[in-house]
Amino acid sequence: MADVLTNARKPPANARSAQQNILAGPILPTLLRLAVPTTVVLVAQTLVGVIETYFIGLLGTEALAGVSLVFPVLMLMQMMSNGGLGGGVASAIARALGAGRSDDADALVWHAIVIACIFGGLFSLALIWGGPWLYHTMGGRGQALEAALLYSGVVFAGSIPIWITALLSSALRGAGNMQVRRW
């Protein structure tokens, strides 16, 4: 990971022209160049969500109801990992790199991994132990509750990798290096 942050501090050869284009270049091509990758990712994520919902709908209304019980908790976890704590990781790394403290930025990456493991583990444990009560309280009964518990068990068994991915992507955002090159 240290190499990724180190490479983030070394602007590529064409960085100066890219910076000049943002300030003095043509507006529309610059905006499109910046917006197209993000738009493509958003469209792909939306399509995955639609296809997932369609597939789950084919499994029956109970499966769809079960997934709808788990969805708010999954979104809470993703917003905390990407937004709340992820924003803190990105901010801390950006401040360390901006102050020229690359060793601190490298250490922050390892701290982010530890934090990801802790929070991912907490989410897993909380939903394994408290999931039945939570989903029942949210209105889950019968087959819908069984489907929610099955889906929740699978999804939240992978909480730690989800958190690690989110916080490491936040570290890359903080480093200003969203396109890692190894040459």
Automatic annotation (TrEMBL):
It is found in: Cell membrane. The keyword Transport applies. It is a multi-pass membrane protein. Pfam families: MatE (PF01554). InterPro entries: MATE_fam, Membrane_Transporter-Flippase. The keyword Cell membrane applies. PANTHER family: MULTIDRUG RESISTANCE PROTEIN YPNP-RELATED. This is MATE family efflux transporter.
